[in-house]
């Protein structure tokens, strides 16, 4: 890529897309287009032109490519959500994701895009695969039920990139990011992922604890919950917060006891200290607020700061070609591949090499992560400490846990020359500062 290459970021308003845009601007790229679907553009950068498009519409995508002729494509547009949304909106998740990726990948091929980066996700690996997750575990076992439709769509996207590369010699790379978090994350309590949901719930819990109604109303005006905004009466606000697990615990409703009592706060002096059920722990102190966390809190997850993820995406776009991720699978070494008579990224040479080797090429995607995981329970306590919330947690074991452990093996990424730089605590501090703005 040169400074003036025509680069398109599909999904430029999303968590990943906006982070990729920041990175591209930071690195001095000057010819950048971004697309959005419904979100208002709040983040104006004069160097970037935003275009509204529904990527599920085949004709609109074809027209877009004809008009704008991109050279490099980041496909960061997708229908994305947490466990609940994936489980309930199953049809939307499979249909919209298949449509978006079919349209963009096919048009990238027809319009001779030089390189495309497709975003998969580590949640599409089999639910019980060995840990840490290696690229080769894809399609080796049963998928997690809650996000099966989404996973099937994403796997189709990866196979589509791989197949176009093998048949037509395109240079389409798929990456498998772990859970991401960062600026422009989705804090909608109905649909968000665990980390932003916990940040918002714990923040609102702290506001309730401090009787800070100005901030509660500001928060709800910015992000209404089920249409309830900051102008609603207190009762209605309390009802909606309660529905989403930010609860004022009446003393006569308590049925559980603290197992994580913090030394920083005064000891429990009321009847709660006499209760003995440890099955659903609440951290407790003088605060009357508890935050509901879905599941047992035991599943372990890995989190990557979205700007690190963007850095990895741009690094791969700049430095990694399809031939680099398959050289170990062909029975020729990478030296022979790169000295092949014509460049491997043209539409015939890779195909020729592939056919002449008569070998199977799979799992050409690249994991992107930190290689480190944390339990949901420890994550909740980490966020609690960062935000300064004094209340406790209620782990609602009637809600699904999802896969028990998910951490990526990032050795392929490391061998390609990239490593993460922001650790979880620093990332949460940053995203909380951003959230408060
Ligand atoms: N977030 C994570 O933790 C994570 C982890 C692993 C992988 N990924 C992958 O990274 C990619 C981006 O995820 P994200 O978290 O950035 O999602 P996101 O914040 O929800 O952003 C999605 C983007 O896609 C756009 N979009 C959705 N439907 C569209 C449509 N029909 N037409 C045009 N644009 C559409 C959205 O536009 P509007 O905002 O205008 O609607 C938005 O810009 C996805 O492929 C996801 O699987 C994400």
Helix-strand layout with pairing:
Blueprint: E1 7-10, H1 15-26, E2 32-36, E3 48-52, H2 58-68, E4 72-75, H3 83-88, H4 90-110, E5 115-119, H5 148-168, E6 172-177, E7 179-181, H6 194-209, H7 213-222, H8 234-243, E8 246-248, E9 289-294, E10 300-301, E11 303-305, H9 306-319, H10 322-326, H11 334-338, H12 349-357, E12 366-368, E13 374-375, H13 376-387, E14 392-396, H14 411-416, H15 424-436
Parallel strand pairs: 1-2, 1-4, 2-3, 4-5, 5-6, 6-12, 7-11, 9-14
Antiparallel strand pairs: 8-9, 10-13
Bound molecules: NADP nicotinamide-adenine-dinucleotide phosphate (NAP).
Number of strands: 14
- Biggest β-sheet, characterized? 7 strands, parallel
Please estimate the helix content: 25-40%
- How confident is the prediction overall: mean pLDDT? 86
Low-pLDDT segments, ≥5 res: 251-284, 332-344
Strand share of the residues? Answer: 5-15%
